[in-house]
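Milestone M4 deliverable, item 7.
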Amino acid sequence: MTAFRITVVPGLCGGRPTIRGLRVTVADVLELLAGGMSYEEILADYPYLEREDIAACLDFAAKQARREELPIRRDAA
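Output delivered:
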């Protein structure tokens, strides 16, 4: 599910994992969800995101918690 939705681009957002190379980090989305926002509210505030992006953030976090190999794309700056 996370394949190539979660990216790490040197110099973008301090090299933190982002969604599809946008200036929205995985942590940003997770914090919004933890704060009680629904998928619909997040998508309304960030219309360039897709439902699959939010699901990929949750999948990424779950794999991080299990320390599994993560399918992320590392782009050159």
